[in-house]
Amino acid sequence: MFGSFLLKLIVPTLLVASQVLAISPQAKSYLDNVLDLLETHYVRSDTINWTELRQKAYQLAANAQRPSDTYLAIEQVLAEIGEGHMYFIPAPQAGQGSEARTMYGGGLELRRAGNFIIRLTPGGPAQKAGLEIGDQIEMVNGRPLILPEELFSYRQGQTVELLVYRARTDQRKTVRLSLTEPLQPPKPTAWLLGQKFGYLDLPRHSLADARQLDYARQVQQAIRAVDAQMPCGWVVDLRNNAGGLFYSMLLGVGPLLGEGYVGGLVGPKSKEQWIYQDGKVLVRSGDATKVMVQLEQPYRLRTVNSPVAVLMGPETTSAGEALVIAFKGRPNTRFFGEPSYGFTTALRMFELPDGARIAIAVAFFADREGQPYDQQLEPDENLFTEWGFFQNEKDEVLQGALVWLRNQPACQDTRP
Known about the structure:
eight-stranded antiparallel sheet; six-stranded mixed sheet; globular
């Protein structure tokens, strides 16, 4: 009797244990490959206890049978490392659609935090409706606007009613906006400010196809048009530059950076120099020099080393931070605003056997002196951006930059 009862207890226990599968050789090989890539290439690899981290990864993937079963463990490994710039992209699933519905924004771009207008298409529906940069959209069709996507998700041709707050005048107004213009990537723009200073607004840039040089052309054409009006100095606004294709952006601002070595990368397995020369961005690594991007008819600034005020802030990220660093060491240059985001690492993308990809931080951005930056970039003058006053006469960051520019010898003349 007793033996029969004991058998009844043992048999269910064995059945449960048999359902717990060990990690398969295929899954373990896949996970080991990712861990090897991280240990070999991660720029801060020497700060990680890899033996301990591997054990955690194996525990998280204890029942994994396929590579995709290890994805959660990989995500957790990245979280344990704590390098926010790195990321993992799972393999696309069979039948997964890649077509995205066209979104219509009415010719404006919103800052994600607060829904402030940070860019307007000249002559677009939003500008024609009387909206201004710095306006804050509070409601759409009587409902609070939480995220920009809620505005941009309306279909082509719809007219929406916006409740807008304008901090400059401390007033609210209702505006009707026709969503007739497809949402476009932000474009660089430039204008003459106060009949004296060139203002260059450089947004992020992420078009990795044949259009990637369009950004560089647009920047240099904008610089050319303003430079023809003989500005005594320049403002380069990187406060909304969240990164993207760095070499194309570097090529665009080349005329302001000046020719020669402008920065590079420093890492345990990666070291390179960035060079702007004759309308080309060159990368020198060891004895090899490679042309990354180039323009056939590059612009040359009328006055070399004109004073430049660089504006930055917490949304200046990744390649945007690399641009800030490229200006460091340039003569007659000063930095205004708030500390940058702190993604000052170069990413290298590794493709995995199943089509998934992992972006690993392999090096730090470095300035013209070879000094690497492993954290947030600090401005010379700490000034806070109040987004309701962005790019107008109450913008403290811009006004601080203009005070400095007016005191530069090149700008001390009879012009107002």
